[in-house]
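Notebook entry, structure prediction.
Reason for the run: the old model in the group folder had no record of what sequence produced it. Starting over properly, with the input documented here first.
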Amino acid sequence: MSDDTATLGSPDPEPQGGLDRDPGDWVTGDEPMTAAQRSYLDTLAREAGEELPADLTKAEASRHIDRLQGKSGRLSEDPRTQ
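New structure, fully documented this time:
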């Protein structure tokens, strides 16, 4: 491969495909949260009775989503039992 060829990825694989990468390590973590994050975070925060700043970064929003999902039990619910 020549030096002027753009590539994606890395020659060294990440453990578990990088799925457990800390949001603070994301290349785009400092960018404003996405519209999808904003919508889902709004839903989770309303369910939890919390108010959050509307100017979160992608990384901050991801952390809040993880926290609020755990608080709400959304990820632990088994749809087969409902």
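Summary: The helical segments are 35-48, 58-72.
The old model has been moved to the deprecated folder.
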